[in-house]
Amino acid sequence: MKYLRSLFLLLAPLFLFSCLEEEAPAPENYFITQKDGVKWESEQGASVGLRKGQDSKDADSLFIGGHKVDGWVSMSIGFKGVGTYKLPATGQARYYGLVGGDVVVSSYKLDKDDGNAEIVITEWNPDANVIKGTFRFRARKLTEYSTGSPETVNFTQGEFQGKVNSMP
Fold first, then answer.
1. How many domains is the chain partitioned into structurally?
2. Are the C-beta atoms of 66 and 46 separated by less than 8 Å?
3. Secondary structure of 74-134 in the HEC alphabet?
4. Could you report the average pLDDT of every consecutive run of 10 residues in the chain (168 residues)?
5. d(CA 42, CA 113)
6. For residue 56, what are the contacts with CB-CB under 8 A and spacing of at least 6?
7. CB-hemisphere CA count at 13 Å for 111?
8. Would 3 be classed as within a structural domain?
9. How far apart are CA 112 and CA 72, in angstroms?
10. Where does the UniProt annotation place the signal sequence (predicted)?
């Protein structure tokens, strides 16, 4: 009987402490889209930054980006929370064609005639600084530093999620 009591006293803390609630894992960080119908996924997930407005009258500025060796997508909106942000009325989008991850060979800006361009913020948790959303836009070529770049680039079925970093 002494043996069972000792065993119970040794195992009881194990059972009690093993049942403690674990911290929730960090949210998955991703930035994925279809670029002209071909899957395009950021190698480092989404880069998301939030700059607070100067006062309550100013909108916050939300910056969302994705980067890989062949290109960089950059979007920004005047951010007021969950909702649909039509572009270019409430923000901007750009794409830079790259070589080697850092040499710009072409640059594109949001096509102002694209009536379907938008960023949709589907989830925003300001306490955890986590944001999730979708996007689509067409960009028109501004400059080309090498030949062969298309005149327009279409981004469809875009999705992102990530931790929001504060910006000065």
1. 1
2. yes
3. EEEEEECCCEEEECCCCEEEEEEEEECCCEEEEEEEECCCCCCCEEEEEEEECCCCEEEEE
4. 48 49 67 98 95 76 96 96 95 95 93 96 96 98 83 97 89
5. 26
6. none
7. 16
8. no
9. 20
10. 1-18
Say which DSSP state 13 is in: H
Q: Looking at the domain assignment, is residue 5 inside a domain?
A: no
CA distance 65 to 76: 9
Q: What is the largest CA-CA distance in the chain?
A: 86
In a domain, 8, yes or no: no
Q: What is the rounded CA–CA span in Å between residue 142 and residue 112? A: 13
pTM higher than the cut 0.70: yes
Partners of 51 in beta bridges: 61
